[in-house]
């Protein structure tokens, strides 16, 4: 089997072929996606996708650890990155280190991701210097939904654009090994990508980034409604619904289980 990629290998990929990243929350999804991805993200989007929560704000460290461990067990090639959930890192670099170290110990993952700009730069530096690789996340940062007021694109005014670029540069200078840029207009993605040393991973940030990430369930077509930046590469919702319908019919007509699914007595 392919050897698991390393953080330095991810860094070195900047300016070469784009990096491929998808979310995974479960062992089977990780097994299926792993051979095709450079990185698997155990995103706190699992709050909505797996648990039906209204946002990522209620997600806990324990939830991230349980799913992170499953994804590490289901993968052997991609770098596994785990989102630090809201409330587990913002208060201080020390608090962030304690949370991140616990996550890595519980799961065997290589790195964490955290949201935020200049305010989080000292934390990124603190963790990186102490052996924990950090992926940043700027632009549309869903954990800040209560401040931002929604999930609309960011950086559409010159002031907001300059703020996002400054955020990205401070996180990169603090030592982040890669940076997610979410929900911004293309010129911002270009300015960030061409001025920082680490790879940028776009989601709703154009093809000008050094890589792309999507929520796997979004790109698999599990949901009716998704963001503008999602492309559906499959229609899994339709596949599941029609399988459930056929199963229900077969149960109701006693077509299932058939002779092949029934144990024979011992002779
Ligand atoms: O939680 C998540 O899935 C994410 C990505 C979409 C970047 O943070
Ligand atoms: Na996230």
TrEMBL record:
Pathway: Cofactor biosynthesis; (R)-pantothenate biosynthesis; (R)-pantoate from 3-methyl-2-oxobutanoate: step 1/2. Signal peptide: none annotated. Its cofactor is Mg(2+). It catalyses: (6R)-5,10-methylene-5,6,7,8-tetrahydrofolate + 3-methyl-2-oxobutanoate + H2O = 2-dehydropantoate + (6S)-5,6,7,8-tetrahydrofolate. Catalyzes the reversible reaction in which hydroxymethyl group from 5,10-methylenetetrahydrofolate is transferred onto alpha-ketoisovalerate to form ketopantoate. SUPFAM superfamilies: Phosphoenolpyruvate/pyruvate domain (SSF51621). One of its GO terms (molecular function) is 3-methyl-2-oxobutanoate hydroxymethyltransferase activity. The gene is panB. 3-methyl-2-oxobutanoate binds at residues 44-45, 83, 113. It comes from the Bacteria. HAMAP family: PanB. GO terms for biological process: methylation; pantothenate biosynthetic process. This is 3-methyl-2-oxobutanoate hydroxymethyltransferase. Pfam families: Pantoate_transf (PF02548). The keyword Transferase applies. Mg(2+) binds at residues 44, 83, 115. Coiled coil: none annotated. Binds 1 Mg(2+) ion per subunit. Homodecamer; pentamer of dimers. It is an enzyme of class 2 (transferase).
């Amino acid at each position: 089997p392919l050897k698991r990629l390393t953080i330095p290998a991810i860094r070195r990929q900047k300016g070469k072929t784009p990096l491929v990243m998808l979310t995974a929350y479960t062992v089977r999804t990780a097994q299926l996606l792993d051979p095709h991805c450079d990185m698997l993200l155990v995103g706190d989007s699992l709050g909505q996708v797996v648990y039906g929560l209204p946002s990522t704000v209620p997600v806990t460290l324990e939830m991230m650890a349980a799913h992170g461990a499953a994804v590490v067990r289901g993968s052997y090639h991609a770098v596994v990155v785990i989102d630090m959930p809201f409330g587990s890192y913002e208060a201080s670099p020390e608090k962030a280190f304690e949370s991140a170290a616990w996550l890595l110990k519980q799961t065997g993952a290589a790195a964490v991701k955290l949201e935020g700009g200049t305010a989080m730069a000292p934390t990124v530096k603190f963790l990186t210097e102490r052996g924990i690789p950090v992926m940043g996340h700027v632009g549309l940062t869903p954990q800040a939904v209560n401040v931002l007021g929604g999930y609309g694109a960011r950086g559409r005014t010159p002031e907001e654009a300059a703020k996002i670029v400054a955020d990205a540069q401070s996180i990169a200078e603090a030592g982040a090994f890669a940076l997610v840029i979410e929900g911004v207009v293309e010129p911002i993605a270009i300015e960030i990508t061409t001025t920082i040393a680490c790879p940028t991973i776009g989601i709703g940030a154009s093809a000008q980034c050094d890589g792309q990430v999507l929520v796997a369930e979004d790109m698999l077509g599990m949901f009716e409604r998704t963001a503008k930046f999602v492309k559906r590469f499959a229609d899994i919702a339709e596949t599941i619904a029609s399988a459930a319908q056929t199963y229900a019919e077969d149960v109701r007509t006693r077509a299932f289980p058939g002779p092949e699914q029934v144990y024979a007595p011992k002779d």
